[in-house]
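Quick one, tokens below:
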């Protein structure tokens, strides 16, 4: 049993980001933090890629795999729109590099003890919260702290009117001949065959002229099996990108919830949920990493100031309402998703659209963007939403 000011369950993006913020240099002694991660084994997540946009000089720039000064979107008919995200850059961060960078900073900062345990329960206890689990040998582990922050996904998503999934599989490829522009990332390529329900697109992040992460992504109710993704990736790389001969050097696969359900930010009096489990994922896009950084900074500031460190909403009520309309419009088929997103990138300045997608746009920007969407189908969806029941769905 160990006592601390805060115990963080999970050492993924959310857990490491919060630990990093809590141990940043500040006046006076910092909090005592326990960071709990599962022992190596079946619960260890595979390596992941996180992408986000921010100005150059960010806290994790030293660990980036790549970044891009131009973004491109291909419409269903093949027309390409290329935009500059300035003053931002689009950044790619691999989880292993992020973990190494933050892990080294935590080791040098002090105040953090890392614990390996498979966690069974996170709950309130007298004077704070407790975490119970088992170590790699099966021995019980009991940790106590004033506050607990849990990044583990719940068994079910919150009740929602619309629940879609952003699901994808990617290949890291190396071609025999130059095939990519290292300065330009393909954010959405709608030249993929569109599914009967939802939408699909390709996603290309060049690492150099002959290497890239190439993904096939769908927004739909159900994920594909691995064979389905492989067929889609073969078609995209051979028939659309026409890469020629290449070899696959690595893969990644994942599912991100896209829902208008309200994720609970509190699991008890002294227990809080962070990351995707706490609603950090933007429902209409699946982007999470930048919101996790904002959320972590505010939690750390509250804890250092002696306030209850309830994670703030990662996205405003206004932007969540806009997301609810878009998700329902996509799910109902009222809006053609490929044409919708391609049209936005064609008619809205790239930096303004990125602010909107990150939930940081201003009202007048939202209005101007809204006028570039199919207004009548959107208004019909607005009128319909209050009548729709909310239902739970598996994670």
């Amino acid at each position: 049993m160990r006592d601390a000011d805060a115990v963080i369950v999970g050492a993924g993006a959310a857990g490491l980001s919060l630990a990093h913020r809590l141990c940043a240099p500040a006046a006076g002694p910092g909090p005592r933090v326990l960071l709990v991660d599962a022992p190596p084994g079946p619960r260890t997540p595979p390596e992941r890629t996180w992408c986000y946009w921010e100005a150059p000089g960010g806290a994790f720039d030293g660990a980036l795999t790549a970044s891009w000064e131009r973004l491109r979107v291909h419409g269903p008919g093949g027309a390409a729109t290329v935009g500059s995200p300035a003053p931002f850059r689009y950044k790619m961060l691999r989880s292993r590099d992020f973990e190494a960078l933050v892990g080294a900073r935590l080791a040098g900062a002090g105040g953090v003890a890392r614990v390996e345990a498979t966690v069974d329960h996170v709950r309130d206890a007298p004077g704070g919260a407790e975490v119970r689990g088992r170590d790699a040998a099966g021995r019980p582990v009991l940790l106590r702290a004033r506050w607990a922050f849990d990044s583990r996904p719940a068994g079910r998503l919150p009740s929602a009117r619309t629940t879609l999934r952003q699901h994808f599989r990617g290949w890291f490829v190396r071609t025999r001949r130059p095939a990519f522009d290292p300065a330009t990332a393909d954010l959405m390529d709608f030249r993929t065959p569109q599914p009967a329900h939802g939408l699909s697109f390709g996603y290309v992040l060049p690492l150099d002229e002959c290497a890239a992460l190439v993904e096939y992504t769908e927004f739909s109710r159900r994920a594909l099996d691995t064979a389905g993704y492989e067929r889609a990736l073969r078609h995209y790389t051979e028939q659309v990108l026409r890469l020629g001969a290449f070899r696959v050097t690595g893969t990644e696969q994942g599912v991100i919830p896209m829902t208008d359900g309200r994720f609970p930010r509190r699991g008890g009096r002294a227990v809080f949920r962070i990351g995707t489990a706490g609603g950090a994922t933007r429902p209409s896009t699946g982007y999470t990493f930048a919101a996790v950084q904002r959320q972590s900074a505010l939690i750390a500031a509250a804890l250092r100031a002696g306030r209850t460190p309830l994670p703030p909403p990662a996205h405003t009520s206004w932007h969540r309402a806009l997301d609810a309309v878009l998700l329902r419009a996509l799910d109902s088929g009222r809006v053609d998703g490929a044409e919708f997103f391609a049209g936005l990138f064609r008619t809205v300045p790239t930096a303004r659209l990125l602010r909107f997608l990150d939930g940081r746009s201003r009202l007048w920007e939202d209005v101007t963007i809204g006028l570039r969407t199919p207004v009548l189908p959107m208004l019909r969806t607005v009128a319909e939403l209050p009548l729709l029941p909310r239902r739970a769905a598996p994670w």
